Fold S-acyltransferase.
Amino acid sequence: MIISCDLWSLSSVQNTEIRFSLWNFTVAIAPTQSYRYTSLLAVGVGVLLFLLTSFSDPGTVTAKNVSKYLTAYPYDNAIYTQKECRTCKIPKPARSKHCNICDRCVARFDHHCGWMNNCIGEKNTRYFMAFLLWHFLICLYGAIVLGLVLAGQLKEFKVIYLLTAFYGIENSFSSLFPHVVQWLLGSYNTQILLMVFLAVVSLLLMGFFGYHAHLCLTNTTTNEKFKWQEYISWKRKVNEAKVSAAALKASISGMSVEKKPPESKWRAFFRRSPLEDAEAVVKNNIYDKGILCNLYEVVFPLSTRPSFSRSESKLD
């Protein structure tokens, strides 16, 4: 006979009852009235952050406000140079990009989020970060609470005691673990599935939030991260081409002046490559103003500050 079925009989003798359905499980651990209101508040905050991220303006650049964004974000003449948007037919401010899905230019463009059906840009990055952090905490809290509830059920029904006292199973983790898991899966399979799901989602949200938090702390966007990779790769190839051309020119001129004996294979093998003399490419992010200033810029975007509104009126 399966151990979980025997445990059912033994626990019934002790006037206990193992609830198999989700309904009975929720009734057994029915939350207090204040806890219910807190749960509704947590869900409400999550929905509010979703709506703010999805429906708020990410920082649309138009002909009316383009001067404000041109003042807020200067060109670095590296990954951003002065140019015009071929679709909107307006000057393209630094750090902006035209989103083909939304069909608009977005200031401080990070990426287009398919889950939010909106671009993540200058004005709604703060809502997006709050959304990730809030739902990470909710999922983590849910996984921990379910784990504690299941542990409480093990203690309430004295599963460990029954396994060791009535079945003679050794009181060690390696011996008890498979039997405890068998009992939990037979009694609370829905709750275990939900706990694992919440744990996995919380890990994914933690990684996603950590990645974007790093970008915010360094005042970089996802779009700029790829731009810098392309720029550094291109610049390195240009420098190597210059060094190779100079080395080839020096070699040709040396051969024309005097004939030297051929170089040995070993010496040629250990000879320093001219490409090692190429100038190193350094990332110079002029928008990185320190952790505190970078965070302040995310929470209070530059274009929303009164100083930039005044500068726009002066330009007009």
